[in-house]
Write a structure and sequence with these properties.
- The structure is a single chain.
- The chain is of the alpha/beta class.
- It folds into 2 domains: 158 residues, no CATH class; 117 residues, no CATH class.
- It is built from 13 helices and 4 strands.
- Strands 1-2-4-3 form a 4-stranded mixed β-sheet.
- Strand 3 and strand 4 form a beta hairpin.
- Helix 6 packs across helix 7.
- The protein is globular and about 60 Å long.
- It starts with a helix and ends in a 13-residue tail after the last helix.
Length: 320
């Protein structure tokens, strides 16, 4: 019942017309960093005495015009998301110090991250707007399409939980690489495309930070991935091969999304597989050349690298 009331209340909400707000992401200038974490802090404080429904309604009234589609437009998942938003609003007094500290340090860390990335990719420039937000647990970083354009988001709430001074550098290299790579590898939506994007970004982070371990490459979330996959690597590659051309979210999810693993491998194990495949292909060419390969050249390289792990067998023991 609460979910239904919440959905109805939010659907009727509209932003206050006299509230000054930062420029919406859809029109923000490329190369700028906008910090919206103070907005969340202020809203959490100012709505502390309101009802649950009023708090979530106020949240959407403020943020949805700024970031359309980031916190709303989630169809049947919206009510559950709004429950999560409410929980973050309620827990703000306990989380304030850690998230505020993370947000305060981010500007300098991002500037250092870009400078570090540019030492390897001399032609890099920041071509998208960047937003630092309280992501309501959605992400530590990544791109989203807002108003028809790519926007790079960093979630101070998730970064505060996952990252420290030993991991922030490789993490930023990973996310900045995605922005750089998009120029050369756009318009590709099958599972193998995500495999290459995420695997190559993970490989790039490892190459730009020699000696870092799996934790810095986020291959330990939500659990240690390598120990679960490596002993059954051929089987894992076969699970990937069967769905390479799929554009479906349900096929993508086990490989790249957090969630309850339904098979023998942990969630997000596609990052590890993609990393291994990118490293295998990367043994034959420089990282800078890998980043500029177009989709029509990548696909056969990926398939050949997967085939190198051996044939797949059907449940009856036959090899297809």
């Amino acid at each position: 019942m609460f979910l239904a009331l919440l959905a109805a209340a939010i659907g009727a909400a509209s932003p206050p017309v006299d509230s000054p707000v930062p420029k919406a992401a859809a029109t923000a200038k490329a190369g700028t960093l906008t910090d919206l974490t103070p907005d969340f802090a202020e809203l959490a404080d100012q709505t502390a005495t309101l009802s649950d429904i009023e708090r979530v309604t106020a949240f959407h009234a403020h943020f949805d015009p700024l970031l359309p589609g980031y916190f709303n437009g989630k169809s049947e998942r919206q009510p559950r998301f709004d429950i999560t938003a409410l929980r973050f609003l309620q827990s703000w007094p306990r989380q304030r110090a850690k998230i505020t500290q993370t947000a305060a340090a981010f500007g300098d860390a991002f500037a250092r991250g870009q400078a570090h990335f540019k030492t390897a990719f001399l032609d890099y420039s920041l071509t998208v707007p960047v937003y630092l937000v309280h992501s309501i647990g959605q992400q530590d970083g990544g791109t989203r399409t807002i108003g028809g354009r790519t926007v790079l988001f960093f979630g101070a709430d998730v970064m505060a939980e996952l990252h420290d001074e030993t991991t922030i550098g490789p993490f930023l290299d990973h996310e900045i690489f995605h922005i750089y790579h998009e120029k050369y590898f756009g318009g590709c939506s099958a599972l193998w495309c995500s495999l290459w994007r995420e695997g190559l970004a993970t490989y790039a982070a490892s190459r730009l930070n020699p000696g870092v371990g799996d934790r810095a490459l986020l291959l330990t979330q939500p659990q240690l991935i390598r120990p679960k996959v490596e002993p059954r690597l051929a089987e894992a590659m076969c699970s990937l091969r069967a769905k390479l051309d799929s554009p479906r979210r349900e096929d993508y999810a086990p490989f790249f999304l957090f969630g309850l693993a339904k098979g023998p491998f942990p969630s997000r194990y596609g990052y590890f597989l993609g990393y291994l495949l990118a490293a295998k292909i990367g043994a034959t060419m420089p990282l800078q050349a890998l980043a500029k390969l177009p989709p029509e050249q990548v696909k056969p390289l990926l398939k050949a690298a997967i085939d190198g792990y051996g044939p797949c067998t059907e449940p009856n023991g036959a090899t297809p």
